[in-house]
Amino acid sequence: MDLPVLDISPCGVLYLASLTQHHGCEIHPHCSMNLLHGHFGPWLIVGREDLFDLLSCSVSTCSGAWTGHLGPHWQLRSSSGATGLCMDPMGQLVARLVPLLLLLLPEQGAEACGTSRCCFQDPPYPDADSGSPPDSASGPRDLSCYRLFDAGFECSWEYDGPAAGVSHFLRCCLKSGRCCYFAAGSATKLQFSDQDGISVLHTVTLWVESWVTNRTEKSPEITLNLYNSVKYDPPPSGDIKVSMSAGQLLMEWETPARQDGAELQFRHRTPGSPWKLGNCQHQDDAAFGENNGESCLCPLEIDTAQEFQLRRRQRPRPGASASPWSSWSRPVCVPPGTLPQPEVKFLVEPLASNGTRQVTLQMQRPQLQLPEGCRGPKSGAEVTYHLHLHMLSCPCKAQATKTMRFRKTLHLSGAAYDLAVFSCNRFGPGPNQSLHIPADTYTEPRALNISVRTSGTTMHWPAQASGLTYCIEWQPQGQDGSTANCTLTTPKDQDPTGMVTHHWSQASGAMQQTTCYHIIVFASSRPEKPNSWYTLLSAYHFGGNASVAGIPQDVLVSKGGLDFVSVDWKPSPLSTCPGVLKEYVIRCQNKDSNQVSELSVNSTETQVILRGCLGAGANYSVQVRADTATMKGAWSQPRHFHMGFPVVHFVHCPHISGELPEHPPPGRPCVPQPEQGLSAPVPTPAHTPCQHCC
Q1: What phi, psi does 61 have (nearest 5°)?
Q2: What distance lies between CA 595 and its chain's CA centroid?
Q3: Residue 230 DSSP label
Q4: What is 404-450 written as a DSSP string?
Q5: What is the mean pLDDT of residues 558-579?
Q6: Which of 123, 493, 625, 656 can bridge 633 by disulfide, Cβ–Cβ 3.0-4.6 Å?
Q7: How far is C-alpha 550 from the geometric centre of its chain's CA atoms?
Q8: Model confidence over 131-145: pLDDT tens digits?
Q9: How far is CA 27 from CA 36, 87, 510, 547, in A?
Q10: What is the pTM of this model?
Q11: How far is CA 389 from CA 350, 398, 473, 487, in A?
């Protein structure tokens, strides 16, 4: 049988090698140091075979390079039996190694107990048999020992006894029967490395003894190979993606480095309920986890929130004991599958002088119960509420919509808006409630400063702050906004007159139709934000040839007495355009003398009485026109009439003629009564004040 030899590198580090390395023996990948070339002699290490367990790496694996400490029972001798000079297989002379080796190998029982290494001495407390039986209710329990990735080894356990004054000791017995201990203090977790005196490649037995108030309690023992017992990391909670798939929850994450082929479990709970355990589908059988990832299908609750935690472990190998589970991941909080629709009411105030109106939203938020681990901010189960604002007016603007967090008040222009309030969770938006805010109907009681010429239409309005963008919108009166036209303008230079001027050419066809247009001018310093616009001007304009289109129709002259007539007409089409019609003008012409008189009446009047200015027996004509603030209208067709002479109707009185037997009623004078239509000449009555004088 090949015996292990002790190689000493030029740096003085101990190495164990086997003579069989000269026959192609491979280097074990778990040994922590590489073989340094250059033997100082094939020294053989002989002794009891069971003491080989004191090495960090076992020679039984035919290693080419070994590191670790040697136990005190080892003896050294050369391959030739000498303890002095010897020759290596190449015949080279080497130095005497015995003094150096004697310094490196301590005697039995001479090793000191440090704070990190496993101490091969009796523990500093009474025998564990004086305490409670193993796995007692108050003693240590659930001991688990395992290898960590890139962090050595670790043992952890549970302890429900009093924390004050307790001292925990992790005990370990090697295959040889030698035992040591780590002092953990009050901690219930301890880490160590393969250099701390415990064999990690061979089976060891471990347990925990807890000493408190002169009593020692012991946990159940576990026997395992530390290197093969690997504890995986839990899924990285911050990187777990949650989505819905075919009515279930799909959780996906990247596999931790060098931890492939894991077995997965989850546990979940709803508000007020205990944890429920579940197994994830086998990764080899599932079409999950793209880009070398892992995933797990979990149940989805429709009406309640859930808290999930996941854990991983190395999938058991045939004939080997199962590795420990990783710790549970941080909570993964999932909202209900269906969110209730919010109930929203709104109140719109009148348009203020700054061109905006306040919209107040009142929402009844549904109450959502959350599990214990999901009650903090940004847990993932929370529900947020948002507004989606769509400005319907001014369709030529660059940006018409904006989504924002829910707010109770909005300040919007007088435009029409669609508003949607919706809930949102980690799965996306939920149901929404749509609201329509109609356009403000208030218009200024004045006409716009618009001039229409053959070259086109020009519009003026007072300038606001520099750098503003103006949107001019126009549409026929009474339309719903679908036929609105608009144009944007951003004046570059300040007009000396303090006015903004915009011109439409005749070819553009803007407001050429003979009808009433509603014109609104909006302004904004940030036109990309739909909620930044305000109403600058809202008025009406009658397009086309308003002079001809506004002629009053159906002018009628009625004789109402001896010296007056009534002139009636139908309202001008301009009167339907708010703020456009200024007044009516009535023109009365004496056809015999060509004398002309005009009088003005309110835009709301459709009748006038001409009294005291009409001569008896004369012929007259009457015309009516409708004027705007910037334009005189065209006259209506003339209406002709003739003022006849009044006649005397004689009343027979008994006291004069004696013809009637009855006397007239008291107070009734016998005076002539004028009657229209009689041709007998009578003196012209004296001129009296008239209601509307020509």
Answers
A1: -90, 10
A2: 79
A3: B
A4: EE--SEEEE-SS-EEEEEEEEETTEEEEEEEEEEPPP----SS--EE
A5: 89
A6: 625
A7: 55
A8: 556 556 678 999 999
A9: 12, 25, 91, 108
A10: 0.60
A11: 19, 15, 19, 21
